[in-house]
From TrEMBL:
The gene is LOC111298030. The lineage of its organism: Eukaryota, Viridiplantae, Streptophyta, Embryophyta, Tracheophyta. Pathway: Amino-acid biosynthesis; L-histidine biosynthesis; L-histidine from 5-phospho-alpha-D-ribose 1-diphosphate: step 4/9. InterPro entries: Aldolase_TIM, His6/HISN3, His_biosynth, Isoase_HisA-like, RibuloseP-bd_barrel. Coiled coil: none annotated. Pfam families: His_biosynth. Its EC number is 5.3.1.16. GO terms for biological process: L-histidine biosynthetic process; L-tryptophan biosynthetic process. The keyword Chloroplast applies. One of its GO terms (molecular function) is 1-(5-phosphoribosyl)-5-[(5-phosphoribosylamino)methylideneamino]imidazole-4-carboxamide isomerase activity. This is 1-(5-phosphoribosyl)-5-[(5-phosphoribosylamino)methylideneamino] imidazole-4-carboxamide isomerase HISN3, chloroplastic. Keywords: Amino-acid biosynthesis, Chloroplast, Histidine biosynthesis, Isomerase, Plastid, Sodium.
Amino acid sequence: MRTFSLHGTSIFELSTNSHDRNFKSSFYGSNKHPFARASSSLIFKSCHFSVRCAVSFRPCIDIHKGKVKQIVGSTLRDSKEDGSTLVTNFESDKSAAEFAKLYKKDGLKGGHVIMLGADPLSQEAAIEALHAYPGGLQVGGGINLDNCLSYIEEGASHVIVTSYVFNNGQMDLQRLKGLVHVVGKQRLVLDLSCRKKEDKYAIVTDRWQKFSDVYLDVEVLHFLANYADEFLVHGVDVEGKKLGIDKDLVALLGEHSPIPVTYAGGVTLMDDLETIKEAGKGHVDVTVGSALDIFGGNLAYGDVVAWHDNNRRGHKRDL
């Protein structure tokens, strides 16, 4: 029996625990990508996770060149060779640290500080936000094996990773295991942001410009849950455009994610929050960006916080 090779390494060499062995069957006989469909019964046997049933609002701080901004994520580029330009919905005169203090005051945990570039100004702003709310924020953007632990030491509760793991269009299991070894599964968030491709959701990397050969489905979610504490999923096709949410994506996450997952993209109205709560079966948290009045939109931040608090109170009553 042959094994599928990931970046020149046998799957047997990568597999060191029962979770990996249970998933090996999906690698056999595949000439497309390592996540060809496996028997779901094998995967479900390896997963024993608990999922929270109260929906939370997860705030965000997106940083570009040191400034807090809300942009249309699909317009991000490493260069302007294709003639495209960055579309910015909003640029704040407040610092990242000021937003962190606001979220701390309102008791909002698990927010995302995202560096939309690896420039020193953005790194400095992100660290200032972490210092302002130690243990209350996650950080992402350019995270790799060399720098992941430093952000934890600066106060991040988790590091968020995409492109380092989904490298050159494929999942690099060795890199993923390396991150888990350094920071621990309990401090790792995998960003599985995706775009529609042939009626399936393909994970995208490199500032959401490159399609990977990994598609979000039940097998992938359960396999990756063995290596992460949470998932963060941007619906890239609607993100930053205030055009409404991707309900099908939310439903997929609510049905199949065995660990906490946060959805971002397209929220415009309070009704969208309720739709996410319903479509996600109470298992999918939500991030709101451009639509919020604190980021130049029409949706009142105070109303969203009140919605969040009401969900938490309702959950406590049900326990």
